[in-house]
Amino acid sequence: MGTAGRKGLYWKPGIADITAAYLAVLTGPRFRVTGLDLEPPQVELQDGISEAPTELATTAELLNRAEAASRETLVRLVNPDWDDDRVRTEVDAILAETGRAVADPTLTGAEGDGDAGFPSDGGGPGD
Length: 127
Known about the structure:
single chain, 4 helices, mainly alpha, elongated, 2 domains, 47% helix
């Protein structure tokens, strides 16, 4: 990681200079591209080493098999660049496709009054 950081310090100014020169060529008399900002761009290099998609999928599969992570956690693991709405939509789609998007069968009524589906005549199991 230290070597990558040092190399980044060397490469960032060069990349910015080359990109600025390319933009200047594009706005010159030969190409005449308009609307380009001729200030040197800000160069940002990736932090750390990212995992390959197969590694992420293997990790998600193992966590799923161990029942050690929620669907939302697994979706976020495999798709770290997704926003909250897209993650929620994907989780809902997964639950619907697998038949897991069902209401709790032990609750009746909208508030879950706790009668666990027993008749409202006061009788419970065994009455």
